[in-house]
Design goal:
Layout lengths: L26 E2 L3 E2 L2 E2 H4 L6 H6 L1 H8 L1 E12 L2 E12 L4 E7 L13 E6 L2 E5 L10 E5 L16 H7 L3 E12 L2 E11 H7 L5 H10 L4 E8 L5 E11 L6 E11 L45
Antiparallel strand pairs: 1-2, 3-10, 4-5, 4-14, 5-6, 6-7, 7-8, 8-9, 10-11, 11-12, 12-13, 13-14
Helix pairs in contact: 5-6
Length: about 300
């Protein structure tokens, strides 16, 4: 033996993945953020486009999950981030989120959290502000919104976010990595909102069709991370829309994180008498994507 030490093969490392909320890319000492690349394990079997078009169906099969959301908006040199956390039932298409608005640029105290209830065709908001009584809910018909509530509520409905993938046109395998300690497969691609609307379930079709008409472009770039069961763990869309409240186009990056699948979810919609019937004035408390008018429709029961 010549006494010459054999050199160990180097390990490939990928770039750090920036994420919103509480999920962070864990960096290994001296090696950067771990991203086990395609060269190490090879791309998974199956056409990525077909895999992603079926992702929404796999969430329905999972039943429910906890979720964290982050929506970053940039307009006229101003950038704000709205964060949310809650639960979602994919089979009933119902969810409950607590949405935190950013602090005022002038440094004013933070807004009270807005409670949002998500239901097929409707968004209910409490602590909406702009003259709405504290004990009343605002109901918005999501099919009437120009963005289909992909942006207006400050958080993208988790199932609607996954149904955007039904319109996947291009997709490539990026590599293996981790999200919140779970091994995932990272894909990057673009989806077409009109195609997503055509392929969506009957309950999800009106909102996606509205978004296809209302956004500045119907093409949506995305990054998605699927666990080994094919369920979405993290999904980041980049939307672009023309804001009627302000001149110019608004760029929006919406991130949805899903975890604790099978968690118990119980969402009771407000009774008709608990819904504010007036018109919402635009104001400092308005949701970033614009508001809507109060609607007297409702469901049975009240908030949990």
């Amino acid at each position: 033996m010549g006494g010459r030490a054999r050199r160990r093969p180097g390990t490939r490392t990928g770039g750090g993945v920036a994420v919103a909320g509480t999920v962070v890319c864990v960096c290994l000492a001296g090696s950067g953020c771990a991203e086990q690349g395609a060269a190490a394990q090879g791309a998974p079997a199956g056409d990525p486009v077909a895999v992603l078009r079926g992702a929404a169906g796999r969430l329905v099969g999972a039943g429910s999950a906890q979720t964290r959301t982050a929506m970053e908006m940039a307009s006229g040199g101003t950038r704000v981030t709205v964060r949310g956390q809650g639960v979602y039932d994919f089979r009933a298409r119902r969810g409950r989120l607590k949405v935190l608005l950013p602090q005022d640029p002038a440094g004013a105290s933070e807004h009270r959290p807005i409670t949002e209830l998500l239901a097929p065709g409707a968004l209910f908001m409490k602590n909406r502000g702009a003259g709405v009584p504290d004990d009343k809910w605002v109901r918005v018909d999501t099919g009437s919104l120009s963005d289909g509530n992909l942006v207006t509520g400050g958080a993208t409905d988790p199932l609607a976010a996954a149904e955007v993938l039904r319109g996947t046109r291009t997709a490539t395998y990026v590599g293996r990595t981790e999200v919140a300690g779970t091994a995932v497969t990272h894909y990057r691609g673009t989806a077409d909102l009109a195609g997503a609307a055509r392929a969506a379930t009957a309950a999800g079709r009106p909102a996606l069709a509205a978004a296809a008409e209302g956004f500045a472009t119907a093409e949506v770039p995305f990054d998605v991370y699927l666990d080994d069961a094919g369920r979405v763990r993290k999904l980041r869309h980049r939307f672009s829309f023309v804001n009627g409240q302000r001149a110019g186009t608004v760029a929006v990056a919406s991130t949805t994180l899903l975890y604790d699948f099978g968690t118990a979810v119980r969402v009771r919609l407000p009774a008709g008498g608990d819904i504010y019937e007036g018109t919402i004035a635009d104001g400092a408390d308005a949701m970033p994507g614009g508001g809507g008018e109060g609607d007297s429709g409702g469901g049975g029961g009240g908030e949990d």
